[in-house]
Amino acid sequence: MSERPLTPSAIPPQRIAALRAAEAAAYSAARPLSRAAFGDGIANFLGGVPMHWMKDWPLPFPFIVREAKGATITCLDGIKLDDFCLGDTGSMFGHSPAPIGRSVARQARRGLTYMLPSEDALELGRLLKDKFGLPAWQIATTATDANRFALRVARAITGRDKILVFNGCYHGAVDETMVRLRDGKPVNRPGLAGEFRNLTERTRIVEFNDLPALEVALADGDVACVITEPVLTNSCMVLPEPGFHDDLRELTGQHGTLLLIDETHTISTGPGGYTRAHGLEPDMFVLGKPVAGGVPAAVWGMSARVAAWWSRYCETKEPGYSGMGTTLSANPLQFAAMRATLSEVMTEQNYARMIAGAERLERGLAAAIARHRLPWHVARVGARVEFICAPGPLRNGSEAEAAHAPELEAAIHISLVNRGSLIAPFHNMMLVSPATTNRQIDRLVANFADIADRLAA
Ligand SMILES: Cc1ncc(COP(=O)(O)O)c(C=O)c1O
Question: How far lies 148's CA from each of 5, 145, 177, 381, in Å?
Answer without folding.
Answer: 45, 5, 10, 25
